[in-house]
Amino acid sequence: MRDARYDVLFEPVALGPVTAHNRFFQVPHCNGMGHRDPTAHAVMRGVKAEGGWAVVCTEEVDFHPDSDTSGFIEGRLWDDGDIPMHERLVDQVHTHGSLAGIELVHNGMASANLYGRIPPAGPSHLPVKGYEPIQARAMTHDDIDDLRRRHRAAVGRALRAGYDLVYVYAAHNLSTLQHFLSPRANLRDDDYGGNLPNRARLLREVLEDTLEECAGRAAVACRIVVDELSGSEGIERGEMDALFELIGELPDVWDVMVGAWEDDSLTSRFGYEAWTEQHFRGIKQLTSKPVVGIGWLTSPDTMVRLVGSGVLDLIGAARPSIADPFLPRKIEEGRLDDIRECIGCNVCVTGDWTMTPIRCTQNPSMGEEWRRDWHPERYRPRASDAKVLVVGGGPAGLEAAMALGKRGYEVTLAEATRELGGRVLGEARLPGHAAWIRVVDYRCGQLAKLANVEIALESEVTADEVREYGFDHVAVATGSRWRSDGVGRRHRRPIPVEGVDVLTPDDLLAGERPAGAQVVLYDDDHYYLGGALAEMLAGEGTRVTLVTPAALVSEWTVNTMEQARIHRRLVDAGVELVTAHDLVVVDGGEARLVSTFTGRAHAVTLESLVLVTARLPNDTLARELGVTAIGDALAPGTIASAVWDGRRFAEDLDAPPRGDAVPFKREIVALAD
Ligand code: ADP
Ligand code: SF4
Question: Which position among 66, 264, 313, 338 bears the catalytic label?
């Protein structure tokens, strides 16, 4: 039974000609599957609808090859040939009584059009986003007519595919309609440039075209950036009053966002729940139309407050709906403690940046709904009475024990220490990483409800013990440890180190601290950990020099869209950054650094060394037992990959062996005649 204070979230909301059955609105989000994996994509959206999201949208969908989103794998609706994959998505969403929305996009100067090779076009002669060596050309009036006609034709195709809601997209610095609106990109002096009515002209025209084409058969949404966060150079929040005077009543629903994508999907390291509220407050009062907005909203109380205080009509979510596609249902059924809260890590976003199907740290079924038949809530019942021992209570072991328990197996989870959580316990204590503990909290909460799972803490098990216990299966999830010899990507042999104390991330996370106040931290791991440890040490008053062979600090966090913020935070914390340098030797109080470009060396002084390079799996137990370990004990990786492997183990148990067959379903392009 749901708590009456959440009733407001389950009120229907009219969106022009259609009605959302509640206030939960899955805003468009990328997924790395798009037009390449259309069925996997469709089924993933269907699961969201099943989980109670009243509106479920696509990612951005390009509607003509004159502006393609390549090499990202997004949606595509170029001609009628693309309609069937959209019909499939719409069907999946409709099966569960939700509305299906499509976000049509003209990327313009945000894309180099690498696929179609058609020179990109935007409001002005300006280079495309990123460093692709190509410029967008300034659109002529004929080009503008082409864009309007093509957009309108795509709206027609979207209607034929069955969509209930069609987006006019002017947000995320990804859309020509935004670029025309923005004084940062629009340098024109014709009737499409200059003052706000001129800059808004194309957006208004496309909105009017779309309304006319929809003709009451589908709602028209407008996604708008309310502040580009680039000061007076760009669109500012103050301009919204005038903009809404012009077009505020046109769309059936407003979808508001702030900044660019990296702001919109701010990680928990740099943001907090409802951080967008300060920018959204007052927008609703500018229009009679409903407003949806995001803000890493995972808590139903925050959602109620935002609706109650007149900030939003609909609760927008991408990441919270990825981590828990059943979030609305769980609130509706009064099962708040079953909510799998997003940790704000942006591993989901890395799917888009790496052009691979979306994955999620909290929800291992994300992207696997169709490929592997994994469901975020339902589990295949056990196929035998086997008793299973899971060794290790980190993310892999927790997930394996939980999923096996939900399948109905009798499970014992043995953990050597006093606390479940493994690596997450330490990492969640890093500055800005507190929300990561949700990986542990969710699973411990679920395990507590499973009578068939027994948890044994302070139980470091040996191979002999395991053999004695007589379990039918063992999942060895004993994790990994950081190397202290510097071996990793750059060095395949130990780095010679003399005369200073050496610490690893394990030492620091266990509470040890460097003996000296001057520390060199060598980061050859390149994800968040090196930077976060440097930030932690600097915050405690240690003088830290972060050395990395990469050109950027925490370079892989480009894929989580955090890199620039990490760099800024480290500089603010007083960490000295030495990029594109290798650490080759430490002797006494000196570390010798060599430029990875020129080979030129220089020395820095240090009293202590922290090595963040590579890990070794704790696989002794697995080897002694002759079983394949899971998670980091098999191959150290992300928390997301450990969770995924825990689920994979649970899913594979008692499943028929697949041999060398491809272990998941895929779609193969139909060959042309
Ligand atoms: P993963 O990310 O693969 O889940 P972690 O390193 O986070 O790995 O967690 C591994 C867990 O396994 C830790 O909590 C550790 O204490 C526990 N562990 C390691 N060896 C044993 C063992 N022999 N018996 C029980 N628990 C173990
Ligand atoms: Fe949230 Fe991380 Fe999952 Fe993305 S990957 S939805 S940020 S928990």
Answer: 264
Is 348 touching ligand 2 by the criterion CB < 6 Å? Answer: yes
Question: What is the Cβ-side half-sphere exposure of residue 80, based on CA atoms within 13 angstroms?
Answer: 1
Ligand 1 pocket, mutate which of 347, 399, 415 (most atoms under 8 A from CB):
415
Other beta carbons within 10 Å of 157: 21
207 has pLDDT over 90: yes
Query: Is the CB of 362 within 6 Å of ligand 2?
Result: yes
3-state helix vs strand vs coil in the chain, percent to 5: 35, 20, 45
- CA of residue 669 relative to chain centroid, distance: 27
Q: Are 552 and 576 spatial neighbours (Cβ–Cβ below 8 Å)?
A: no
User: Shortest CA distance to 423 belongs to which of 372, 361, 366, 472?
Assistant: 361
Residue 566 CB partners (closer than 8 Å, separation 6+): 269, 528, 531, 553, 554, 557
Residue 264 is a catalytic residue: yes
The pLDDT, as a whole number, for residue 294 is: 97
* pLDDT, mean over the chain: 97
Distance CA 21, CA 14 (A): 9
Cβ of residue 505 lying under 6 Å from some atom of ligand 1: no
Q: Could you confirm whether 527 is annotated as catalytic?
A: no
Give CA separation, 414 vs 27, 237, 362, 466, 651, in Å.
Answer: 41, 54, 22, 10, 20
The amino acid occupying position 597 is F
| Average pLDDT of the segment spanning 8-36 | 98
469 is catalytic: no
Residue 82's pLDDT is what? 98
- Bridge partners of residue 474, in order along the sequence: 389
User: Is the C-beta atom of 390 inside 6 A of ligand 1?
Assistant: no
Report how far residue 666's alpha carbon sits from residue 671's, in angstroms, rounded to the nearest whole number.
Answer: 15
- Ligand 1 center to 639 CA (angstroms): 13
Told to judge if 30 belongs to the known catalytic residues of this protein, a careful annotator would answer yes
What is the distance, to the nearest Å, from the Cα of residue 126 to the centroid of all Cα atoms in its chain? 30
Query: Would the pLDDT of 524 be above 90?
Result: yes
The pLDDT assigned to 1 comes to 83
